[in-house]
Amino acid sequence: MAPWLLLTGLLLARGAEVVPLERDFIIRTWNTSHGLPDERVLALLVDREGFVWAGTRKGVARFDGSKFVTWSRANCAALVDQECRALAEHPNGTLWVGTFDGLVSLGPVPTRFDTRLVAPESRGVAAAAHHPSGHRVHGLAASETGELHVATECGIATLRPDGTWTRPGASEGPHSVTILSVAASNQTAWAGTVGQLYRRDHPGAPWIPELPATFDHTNQCVYALAMTTRGALFGWIGAFVQSGGTVQLMRRGAESWHSLFESPVELVGHPFVTGDSAGAIWFQLKGRAFGRWRDGQFIEYTLPGELAPMAVTCMQEDREGNLWAGTARHGLICLRPRRVRTLTTADGLPDAKTWTLLEATDGALWVGTGGGVARLQAGKPETFSRSEALASSQIRALAEDSRGRVWIGTGSGLSRWDRGQLEPVPFPGAEFRTKIRALLVGRDDAVWVGTAQGLYRLGAVQTNAWLVADGLPHENVCALHEDRRGQIWVATDGGGVACLTAAGFTERYDEASGLSSSRAWAFCEDADGGLWIGTERGLDLLRDGQITRFTTDQGLPDYSVNGVVEDQRGWLWVGHDRGIYRVKREDLLAVADGRRIQARCIAYTDDDGLVDPEVNGQISYPPVIRRRDGTIAFATMGGVAVFDPDRLPDLTNGPPVHVEALRANGETVFSGLPGRGSISMPRPLAEPLSITPRQRGFVEIEYTAVAFRSPEAIRFRHRLLGLSSDWVEANTLRQASYANLPPGNYTFEVTAVNAHGYASATPARLPFRIEPVWHDLWPVRIGAGLLLLAAGTVAVQWRIREMRRIAELERQAALANERARLAKDLHDGLGANLTQITLLSGLGDPRSLPAEALADRFQRLTASTHEALHSLRNIIWLTNPRADSLELLLARICESVERAAAAASLQCQVEFPSEVPAVKISPDRRRDVLFAVNEAVNNVARHARARQVTLRADIADHSVTIVIRDDGVGFDPARGAARGGPDRGLGLASLAERLLPHGGTCDIHSRLGEGTKVILRLPLPR
Q1: Mean pLDDT in the chain?
Q2: I need a labelling partner for 444 at 20 to 30 A (CA). Which of 100, 373, 790, 978 fits?
């Protein structure tokens, strides 16, 4: 008998199930093109931080799901031989690598040990010559007690927790024989050799033989050992390959060994055995894939065609439940268990494109496909395709009535299955009306039919129809639903949704009334009576007559909704064109009520095990159902995807994050990688790292997260305490950079969020300190501060003295200017009047004058006296600080104009505002304005030959405008100015000159025979 037939016979005799590997696993491979050092993987290890370590012929590599980091002869001098045969992690975190040239520890300082002497080579101990190949390491095992057991060509060596090495005594069997495999639990250690298995019950105890005497010690060996999480020991034990015998997978019971099955040794290939967290045992089967044993049940997995034949050399399970397999030629394989089951043509479906689903009362699952309809019950499929009873193989809708009859809607008509018999159902209307989109059996057992051109009700007596003319919102009906009140809801492709009662379509909702889209495709009534509506652009909730819309702005992964259903835990399951997601109904209600900004949705794609993530609908209904066992089934383009809410492929734990390196100005200050000269994270550092002043210019921090499912979807955020407490969203970037950080203490924190929105339990932290330069030291800063304070005090005092001196000079200059102005005013005004008075009073003896001359002299003397008094009053008023308001200035102008007009026998009309703002006017500005007005009025009295003068003042836009108008003879301003004639002597130029220093203007408007208007404008202080 051929060997492979013998193996198959042995497995089948023990009830082995032979299945393709891709049925239960999602397969992904990595090779040298992804960064793996070599495609021959000889050892695997998953460390306590979740990283996957792969030992190859060209070094050892650590994988975090995103990138490989390699240790080889090129960057680790301790790896004299870089062919890694075994890997183990010590309880203290040190990684041990077994090679063909000894043992290497990847601690802070990588060290090589010669296993023949079990002494560090760095101590200068010469290698022993009693066993030329005794330094070859075949296996490693670390126990929970802190021991490390090393299987070598010349026996077994044990590293104790105190750092010392020990070997079995000369009288013990395994002291000088080749050890092929080792295993260890909390206390017990096992060593498999050529010809025997040894057991040591506790540290310090002797090694004793384990296999019974009936075992052929001369022709057999222990190839591999594995300890499961439940404490059971398994092993590959059998004949040498050259002998052509058999090898057995054995399990050690309470007192003895039991054979699970037997195989020809040449078919085993690279013998290994490993246990997983569920208590199952995995082992190699040459030429196929591998076998799985659990609780007496065998499964033989076969590789897909593109991978077979593939020799698997080792296997390990990670913390996410993935299985990692090292191969002899094809690199590293990850087997992710499928938690989404997909029913395809292999399960009896007539076509992979599924459109609609139904679970009948007898438990059968009906699946409408593009190639007919299938009835699946108890694993036995029954299919129906196009025939006289089934008008089309395009199945678009399914429903069951109270008699157990299944109604089948197709693209060309209606059929019915009744007790195993399939029969056509006559349906009225043209061809297009037979394109059935949805079916619904009401509580009264009437069958509602939604088609591409209308809604129909098939009753026991008659058929009713509703078209657009009857109030149907749109002729294309996409979904039907009967709510708990017995109302029929209709979703249409363009008219929104409507509720049909005995009174007709009483409620309508479309885009105009708040629906996210008038193209509605799905209904779901939740446990509280809320009606969820799936549309082309969102998921809407109708409650109490109000529509609440949910789109990607509220956290949904996609706009469109082809189907929606609620599970028993209150999660809404939604299918769309690009995948499936679930969202907790309470989260959406919290968003609607303003208690949350966005809902957290858990999305599923082909990376989670979906054969095809596109969910059908739109022209079929229903595309998703909740089955009686609680599972959720979706009709997709690749088959029926079935989710079990009790066993979901969710990443509910956030990814662990690690700081890998800190560099300052290009120099590595810290490395979180074993063997790179620092402590491995995430263990806290004893004290903060120190960055010298020479290194402080540019700081770079690298970090990573361990995630093997959707690593490209990992999103990071970080912050630097000491600089800012705000988190920085880094998205997929795995590096943070800081420039010119000031001296001080800092703590870098980083956390990550996985594809399902779950964040790391705790952030990774790295404290460091930037040392100050000499001028940043506090004594230097205090001294410099005191010097600056003293210099500043001296400068301020000098400045104050200078400002006082300048102020005094300015005060004296202002006083001198004021004295000169006052002297000028006294000389020009009061002095001139007094001079005239003196002259008039001294002109000879008044008694010699005639009466008329004497009267004239007295009149002139009286007028001069009044002028003198008026000039004196003006001087006193101008120098009085209490008269600095605009209101008093206008009053003074009014008084002065009225007095001048009375003296010239002119009628005077004054128009001043009733309210004047409280604005202060400086003395020089008051003087120039008053004199300019007086000069304008004097011109009227002397030259205008006028009967009336008008004075008006306006205040607007932070300025005052004074207008002096007369009804005199007028003049031509341009002509007078051009010839410098008598009109030029009216003092017109002096009016503008008085106002110009204060930003004011003077405009004169006059024509011969039409009088004169003088406009004075003066800006007011703000």
Answers
A1: 83
A2: 373
